[in-house]
Sequence to fold (479 residues):
Amino acid sequence: MAFTSLTFIAFIAAVVLLTSLMPSPGGRSGVLLVANLVFIGSYVTSAEQVAPLAAFLVLCFVLIEAVRRSRSSAVLGLGLAVAIGTFIVLKKFSFLGDTLALPFPYLIVGLSYILFRVLHLMIDARQGELDRPVSPLQFFNYTCNFLAFNAGPIQRYQDHAANSARPLALDEDKVYRAFARVIKGFVKVGVVSAIFNYLFENMSARLLDPAAHPAVPVLGAMAVAAAVFYTVYLYANFAGYMDIVIGVGTLIGQDVPENFNQPFLARNFLDFWSRWHMTLSDWFKTYLFNPLLKVLATRFTSPRSGPYLGVIAFFVTFLVMGVWHGTTAVFVVYGLLMGAGASINKLWQVFMTQRFGKKRYKALGEKTLAIGLARGMTLSYFALALSCLWLDMPQLAGLVQRLGVLGLLACYAGLSVAAGIAFLAWDAVVALLQSVRPGVTGVSNGVIVRNLALALQILVILTVASFFHKAPEFVYRAF
Fold:
C-alpha cells in the first residue's frame, strides 16, 4: 500500500473514523489490530507469502516469554542468536547463497524493524523491566503497528503500552495540528521528494551510462550532483513519511516518537546521527554502544585509554548500523564508511580537546566560518557515503576507479565548501525572515489564513502529482 496513494488515504480515514467511534483502550486496540492485518495483507496475494513473517513473530513471542520467566543470561543469548539468525535467513543475506533460501516469494517488508522491537523486548525482559507477560494482542500491535511497520520509528514497548492504556482525547487544536502535520508530510513526499527523485534519476542515468566517457572533472561534478539529489530525496521522502505517521498517530491516540531534528544543522558526523533517524541511533546507543563501551572499560582500565575506547565503540556501532541497511557487499562498504566517519569524528574531538582544551575548542567551533564549513563537511561526507545505497558494488568500484583518490578528495572538498556557503546563505535568509515574523504572527494564526495555507499546500501536492503522475515510493522500506 503506497503511502501517497488514494487507497492509503482512504485507509487512514477509515482507521481514524473507527478509532473516534471506539475511543476506549479496548476499542482502539481492536481497531489497531484490524488495521495492522489489513495493512500487512495489502502487501501479499496469498497466505503462503505471509507465513514466514507469522512464524517469525510466534517464535520471537515464545523466546521473549522464555527470557522473561527465566531472567537467564544464557536463555537471552540463545534467544538473541535464534532471532537474529532467523532474521538473516529470511532477509536472504547474500553471504548465505541459496542454501537456506525458502523456495517461494514471501513478505520481508517490516522484518528489520520488527527485529529491533523483538530484541528490545528480550533484553528488557532479562533486565526485569517486563513485570508481566506481554499479551499476544499487545505483542502483535506493538511489533506490527502499521504506522511504524515499514521504517519505524522504533518506539519502546513501555511507551506503546502506556499509549494504548489511555482513552482517546482530542480537541480542535490538536486535530488541526495533526492534520497540518500530515499535509506537511505529503508535501515533503509528494513534492520535494518527487522533484529531487526526478533530478536524481536523470543525473544518475547520465552518470552510469556505459556509452558516456566524460572527463574526470565532469564525472566528479555529476557524481556530486547525483549524491546531493539523492540525499535531499531520501530526507524529504523519509522525513515526510514520519510527518504523516506522527500526525495520523495523534489522531488515533498514539504518541509516535520523532525521528528527525533538523539534521542539516549538524556540525559534525556524530551530531548528525543524533538528529537523523534518531530512534535508530538511540536503539544502537542503548543496546550496542553502551554495553560495548562498558565491556571495553572493564578490560582497559587506564584513564588515558578512556577516550579511545569510545572511538572503537563508535566504529563498531556505526559499522553494524550501516551493514544493517542491506544484505549485499556494498552495504558492508557503507557500514565501513559510517564507522570511519564516527571514529574519525571522535578522534578529532579528542585531539582538539587535548590540544586546545574544552573551552577554547568550543569557542573555535562557534565562529561563523567554522560552523559553515563543519556543516558543509558533514553533509558532504554523508551524501557521498549514501552513494552505496543507490550504486551496486561493480558500479561503485568503477566510479571510484575512474575518479581516483585525487578525484574523490576533490569531490569531497568541493561539495564541503559549496554546501558550507549554501548553509551560511540559508541562515542569513532565515534570520531575515525571523526578523519580520513578529509582525505577521497574529495574521498567520487566524483560522481563515491557516486553513488557506493548508489548502494551498494540497493544491501544490495535486499539481506536482499530476506532473509526475505518481509520487516516488517510500524509499526506506527497502532497507
